[in-house]
Amino acid sequence: MRVSATSILYNSEIRNYMKNGKLILIGLVALLTACGSKPQKQPATETATPQEEQATTSQENVGDMKITDMNRDRVSLAEEIAKNKITIIDFWASWCGPCRQEMPLVVKLYEGHKTQGLGIIGISLDEDYDAWSQAIKAMNMSWPQFSDLRGWDDNAAQRFGVTAIPHTIVVDQQGNILARGLRGEALHDFIDQQLGGH
C-alpha cells in the first residue's frame, strides 16, 4: 500500500485540529466552572438544581448576624431584611461571569418590584474593594451591598453554605427562608407570586 505525502500531511493536520479542539474544549470547561464554584478542599458533593431548590418545606430562618457595608460599617442582617416585604439575598462577585450575565435580569426585577416591597441584599465574595465597587456602579446595582472582602471565606457565605455563585436566598420580612437557588425566570415568577405580580 502506497501512502502519499499529501495523505500523511492531511492526517497530521487532522490530528492537530483534534488535539487543539480538545485543548480548547478543556479550557472552556475550566473557564465556565472556575468562577462559579467554591474551590473544594474535600470531594465535591452533588448539589440540587435551582428548580429542585425552589421552595423550602420547613420554615428555616436566617436569624441575625453582622454584615459589612460599603462604608465598612457593621450592619444587622435582620434589620436590613425587616425593611422589605420580601428580600432576595444575592451572593455574587465582580469576577464571576455568570453573576454579571444574570445581573441585568436582577436589576430589572428590582426596578419592577421595589415599590411593592421587594428588597435585595447583595453579598459579594470579592476580595478587592475597588473591583467590587466598580462592578456595582457598572451594573447599576442600586440596592444595599455588603462584603467581608474575604472571598469564599465571607461570613454570610459560610453561614448559609454557599458553594457556588450566583446564589439567591429569598426571605420574608421576618427572615423566614421561602426559596433558595432561584435564578432568571424562576426567580422572577417566584417574586411575582409573592408580591402579586405585574
Task: Explain what the structure shows.
This protein has helices at residues 5-34, 50-53, 77-82, 97-113, 129-138, 155-159, 184-195; strands at 66-68, 74-76, 86-92, 118-124, 145-146, 167-172, 177-180. With 198 residues, the protein is an alpha/beta fold. The strands form two sheets. The chain has a five-stranded mixed sheet with strand order 5-4-3-6-7. A two-stranded antiparallel ribbon has the order 1-2. β4 (118-124), α5 and β5 form a beta-alpha-beta unit. α4 runs parallel beside α7 (184-195). The longest helix is centred in the N-terminal third of the chain and has 30 residues, at 5-34.
- SS field, number of helical segments: 7
Assembly type: single chain
Radius of gyration: 22 Å
Distance between the termini: 74 Å
> Which percent band covers the strand fraction?
15-25%
How many strand units? 7
Helix content: 40-55%
What attributes does this structure have?
alpha/beta, five-stranded mixed β-sheet, two-stranded antiparallel sheet, 7 helices, 16% strand, globular
Secondary-structure blueprint:
Elements: H1 5-34, H2 50-53, E1 66-68, E2 74-76, H3 77-82, E3 86-92, H4 97-113, E4 118-124, H5 129-138, E5 145-146, H6 155-159, E6 167-172, E7 177-180, H7 184-195
Parallel strand pairs: 3-4, 4-5
Antiparallel strand pairs: 1-2, 3-6, 6-7
